[in-house]
Amino acid sequence: MIPFKNYSACTSMIVGKKASIDGSIMIARNEDSKSSWPKNYVIHPHQEFNDDQQFSSTDNDFKMPLPHVRGSYSATPEWTDKFGLFEENGFNEYGVAMSATESTYTNELALGADPLEKDGIGEEAMITVVLPYVKTARAGVKRLGTIIEHYGTSESNGILFADKNEAWYMETAGGHRWVAVKIPDDSYAVIANQTAIQEIDFDDPQNYLWSTNIRQFVQENHLNPDQTGRTFNFRKIFGTATLADTYYNTPRVWYGLKLFSPEQSYEPVDQDMPFFNRANRKLSVFDVQDFLSSHYQGTPYDPIGEGSEADKHRYRPISLAKTQEAHILQIRPSMPLGASGIQWLAMGVAAQSTFVPFYAGATDTPQAYQNASGQYAPDQAYWTYKLAGVLVDPHYIEFGPKLNEAKQQLRIRFQQLVKQTDRVAKELSNIELENYLTKVNFDNSRIALTAYQKLISRLVTAATDFSPINFKQDVNL
Hints:
The protein is an alpha+beta fold. Helix 12 runs antiparallel to helix 13. About 30% of the residues lie in helices and about 20% in strands. The chain is built from 13 helices and 18 strands.
């Protein structure tokens, strides 16, 4: 069995524009790593360089030249770059959204034919060397694919791309192989640390992309388990289907189907669940938030539910303590470019945090979201949301309702503010729009942090009554 890495054991969701309630495209992911590992939220400005540019990784020895023109883009890098940037997700100035990565795993047979490249591109570099330089989602797939074929990759990953027209999901395998599929407009997909892409139609390059000579590589190395040889199932050729998958990965996909396609009859351990699915309703941004925040509610497997102790800890939940941040990159094609993209960002654990809407057309981010430190600091966004979760954890039954009330009120408030912002944004010029959206983002941040500071105050006050050295005096004494 290929061991799991200590970072990016994530969960992703993609929604096509005809599958959403408002015609938007959404790519979304929980970034999971360590229980306390803060993230920043930044916007890199547009820059044009006279000198040659080069990217050099601090995660490994991966290096590559970069173009002289770098478009502006948002990102959520680590609090320290000592172990790599890990910028993870964002929008660029051209309206392209990218999320990287969903860690996956290549099976031993395929790795024997094409080993990982120790100093190839990895997750920590992908946003940085791709997002600022592409003008469509398809171009993003192609740029990253070219890099992987030339330099190799140090990991197996899934990468999400979107623009105003379409969403793409790309997967790598071995050191130099990859494929990508366009998500059907009327479908959604959920992915959980396991190779997800299935059949590749090599006669349909409009909806499928792939690495050079991948069919020849598979044939020469006898990797296709299909007895007929007529199908090319990327999951079965390159992916894993291990016992570890059945308690770590497949249950999260199963829960997504349970939420959105309940008519499908699968078990949490099934290995053959489809990649493309149609929901039993039009999906909203709240549906995606609920999925990223979920932990098997309504089933025996909920860690804070009423199942047996064995069931409550049987499967790895979607939202868990190791989530650094969760994001939904939503694109509304009917809006002006700067206002069409919203980066819904929940710092810390999605189940205990709140998704704040940040418009992609802004030029700066709130100070509380920059320069995070590795230890608790009350003036930092990550640590504010994290503190609320830490206070709720020991007393979930008593404090859960207070947390959920705060989250619900913020969801309603932000929905109102998005509608209000959209109305104003449609009437503004480009420069006016940038300034306005920057102010809106700062206001939204302040609203969320103020609400959580009030929640923290309530939780601290209530928690004082749960002290183990508390004593209740007999009323008759």
